[in-house]
Amino acid sequence: MCADDDLLIAAAAVIIIDQNDRKKARKSRKRRFWVRPSLKSGRAKYSANNFMNDLILDEVDKLNLEYRCGTGFRNFFRMTSSDFETLLSLIGPRITKMDTTFRKAIPVNERLAVTLRFLATGDSYHSLMYMFKISKQVISAIVPEVCDALINALQDYIKMPENESEWKEKANEFNEKWNFPNCVGAFDGKHIAVQAPINSGTEYFNYKGFFSIVLFAVVDANYNLTYANIGCQGRISDGGVFNETKFKKSLEDNTMNLPSPCKLPGRNKSTPFVFVADDAFPLTCNIMKPYAGTQEKGSMKRIFNYRLSRARRVSENTFGIISSVFRILRKPILLEPKTAKKVVLAIVYLHNFLRKHSKTLYNLNGAFDVDSSVTYPTDSGDGLNNIARVPRRSATDAQEVRNELAEYFISPQGRISFQYD
Q: How far apart are CA 159 and CA 335, in angstroms?
């Protein structure tokens, strides 16, 4: 054995001894406190229960016994106290902790409260620590756990139609509200900003110039999500995310139980039931997207693009509603992608839950599109040159379906009066 080997062995031995000494020092070092004195005394003085009870006092108009919009509890938690109690009854057993000899467990209502406030504002754990008197380390464990519990408890609030009658009901709603027959859903993707994941390179860096994960969602005519896929890295386009979903496979395998094609009023050809999307997605017999390029005013293709836009904007509006309520989505989520995925999925379930339970408060006037007497959309006239999109090659059958719908929209049975005034 040479001298160099002896030196290496000696150096390794010194390193091992030093590491062992540090471990012993850490073990022998006593913990200063289990709970910070400022937080412990603060929780005794400023109980979260008392705080929430104060907010509830603003919520009920004692003279009219009605909920008042814009009151404290709803502004703070983005829901009424009754919705809060409903959620608490659903997830309480899943997030309850036992008291120990060292300290009392944080009550379930405070665990839910700190999570909802985090989703509503996107405040840092440090900020929430001083507000709720709970350490940031504990909050970092509470938020994912409560999000998991919400996802499990609210599973039935996001559900794809299972049979033809349920799909036809979705189609009737689209036709009545947005004047697009045989449409059973609108889908789109949204980039959720996150902090740059460790050692991720450009995996999560999207074409918009920030790091993100992608939310792909299918929305019905009432702004409810019927399918959601979350977590794909931001460098993947909306179409690329769609290609990897179970939704696409089910659509291609005809296992979605869509109704059989039917004839539209006054038409001779049968038209399949379709989803509407933008140009990022492929044109197929069951997916309709706009005609490419700038179309002549009043032309059949331009009218089709307008009618498709009327139906497709429900997906865009749904993303906007969710972001306006749960404002953590308006800033980069300072969590790893795995945890950020749980947060976004919990928000999606809460959206459908509140759409069902708080229609008068969550669905405020002015938050949704309504029809009005407007003229057919015209060119902007801003002096900018319109750059036509390059059309993609699509299957002949899919193009025939789109043309059939476009012809129906200009027929006496399919036209809309205010569209042509």
A: 28
Q: What is the pLDDT of residue 171?
A: 94
Looking only at Cα atoms, what is the longest distance across the chain? 97
Write the Ramachandran bin of 159: left for phi over 0, alpha for psi from -120 to 50, otherwise beta.
beta
Give the three-class secondary structure for 60.
strand
Query: 17-37: string of b/e by CB count within 10 Å (b at 16+)?
Result: eeeeeeeeeeeeeeeeeebee
Q: Which two tokens stand for residue 237?
A: 């386009």
Tokens of 288: 């309709």
Residue 254 pLDDT level (bands cut at 50, 70, 90): confident
Burial 71-85 (b: 16+ CB within 10 A, else e): bbbbebbbbbbebbe
Cβ atoms within 10 Å of 14's Cβ, excluding its own: 10
- Partnered with residue 333 across adjacent β-strands are 194
Residues 6+ apart with CB under 8 A from 368: 223, 317, 321
Does 212 have pLDDT greater than 80?
A: yes
Q: What is the mean pLDDT of residues 29-37?
A: 61
What's the Cα-to-Cα distance from 359 to each of 6, 60, 71, 276, 353, rounded to whole Å?
Answer: 77, 17, 16, 26, 10
Residue 98 — φ and ψ, nearest 5°? -90, 145
Q: How many whole angstroms separate alpha carbon 259 and alpha carbon 261?
A: 6
Nearest-5° Cα angle at 217, 214 to 220: 160
Q: How confident is the model over 99-112, as pLDDT tens digits?
A: 877 778 888 999 99
**Cα separation, 171 vs 186, whole angstroms:** 11
Across the strands, what pairs with 60?
67
Count CB atoms within 10 A of the CB of residue 350.
25
The pLDDT of residue 307 is 92
pLDDT at 362: 64
179: left (phi over 0), alpha (psi -120 to 50) or beta: left
Bridge partners for 284 per DSSP: 287
What would the pLDDT profile of 39-72 be if each residue is shown by its tens digit?
A: 655 555 555 666 676 677 665 554 444 445 447 7
